[in-house]
Design brief:
six-stranded antiparallel β-sheet; Chemotaxis protein chec; 6 strands; 35% helix
């Protein structure tokens, strides 16, 4: 399938996070997010029901840890220290951030486009399916945002479709 799903407006993403995290959230335009091996980061791949690539998002370690910790009402500073020491999200924190990117799929669906769901969620570096890598290399639309979660700091998020 060659179609891509619609990407959400910044305000829609902000509202989704605010409602999900139960905290004030600011979402501003940001520099392009580059996922690297230097800091824990995460990639989510969304696919159409037929398996075709629909969209991809990435989040740096600070946003992943902060948003995950906010859902679980975990202490922000200690949580980030643990993530940095471990080099990745672990246990409940991984599951909590998985929920953030899973719920984000609702913003990628519309009545006029094929249905899309989260299919892959993995740390970076890691294996990226070829069609998802291609989507990232040639996105039709790309949003790069700086996201601040009240009490949990600021991180970066990118969504490509």
């Amino acid at each position: 399938m060659n179609s891509r799903c619609p990407l959400p407006a910044r305000a829609s993403f902000r509202d989704l996070l605010r409602d999900l995290l139960g905290r004030a959230v600011q979402v501003k335009p940001g520099a392009p997010l580059e996922l690297t091996e230097d800091e824990p980061s995460y990639l989510a791949a969304y696919r159409f029901d037929d398996g075709g690539a629909g969209a991809r998002c990435g989040a740096d370690g600070r946003l992943s840890a902060g948003a995950g910790a906010a859902i679980g009402a975990m202490p922000p500073k200690e949580t980030w220290e643990e993530v940095r020491e471990a080099g990745s999200l672990e246990g409940d924190l991984f599951e909590f951030f998985h929920e953030v990117v899973n719920v984000t799929a609702k913003l990628l669906n519309s009545p006029t486009t094929p249905h899309v769901v989260l299919r892959e969620f993995a740390p970076v570096p890691g294996d990226v399916p070829g069609d998802i890598a291609e989507l990232a290399a040639t996105p039709r639309v790309r949003h790069d945002w700086t996201v601040q979660v009240e009490g949990y700091g600021e991180g970066r998020f990118a969504i490509l479709g």
